[in-house]
Amino acid sequence: MVAVTAKKSASKSQEYATADALKAKCESYFSQCDEDEVLYGEAGLALYLNVTIKTLRRWYDGERHEDFQDTVQMAFMRIQNQIETDPRYQEKGMVTRGIFLNKQPRFGGYQDKVEARQDISVNVNMGKGMDESDFK
After folding, report:
1. Residue 117, CA distances (Å) to 16, 113, 114 in order
2. Helix, strand and coil percent figures for the chain, each rounded to 5
3. Element (H or E) spanning 57, and its range?
4. What is the CA radius of gyration of the chain?
5. Using one digit for the tens of pLDDT, what is the confidence trace for 26-84?
6. How far, rounded to the nearest angstrom, does the alpha carbon of residue 5 sit from its chain's CA centroid?
7. CB of 57 within 8 A of CB of 106?
8. Count of CB atoms within 10 A of residue 42's CB?
9. What is the DSSP code string of the chain?
10. Of 28, 128, 30, the residue nearest 80 (C-alpha)
């Protein structure tokens, strides 16, 4: 009974004793994707690492295992680079997906240009010999 309790409390991150072990597993994920000609992704990386997306994001943000932060951020940058450069994202139906992904905080966080509304106020003073009917 004690072994079961201890096993349940152990986190998935303990599978990766060091940042180097995590980096090697990330590299393995990217190699596998390249071999299978599959696009990289956050969910795919999390599944391959056998952790939740929430855990992966906490590592990215440095909320847990600060020593993993650079490794995970580099992995996300590699995914972002593929989104920005892979010709598959320019194919029919994929352009919108690429744009949407680039708007995600961990993949660039790009924002659409916001058009600023400009209100212009004009004050017309009528001179001598002019009345309001001259402007109709």
Report:
1. 52, 12, 9
2. 65, 0, 35
3. helix 53-61
4. 27
5. 999 999 999 999 999 999 999 999 999 999 999 999 998 899 999 999 998 998 888 88
6. 36
7. yes
8. 18
9. -HHHHHHHHS-GGGG-SSHHHHHHHHHHHHHHHHHHT----HHHHHHHHTS-HHHHHHHHHTSS-GGGHHHHHHHHHHHHHHHHH-GGGGSTTTHHHHHHHHTSGGGT---PPPPPP----------TT--GGGG-
10. 30
Comparing 19 with 108, which gets the higher pLDDT? 19
Which one-letter amino acid corresponds to residue 132? E
Q: Mean pLDDT, to the nearest integer, of 3-8?
A: 41
Q: Is 71 helix (H, G, I), strand (E, B) or coil?
A: helix
Overall pTM surpassing 0.90 (yes/no) = no
Amino acid at 55: T
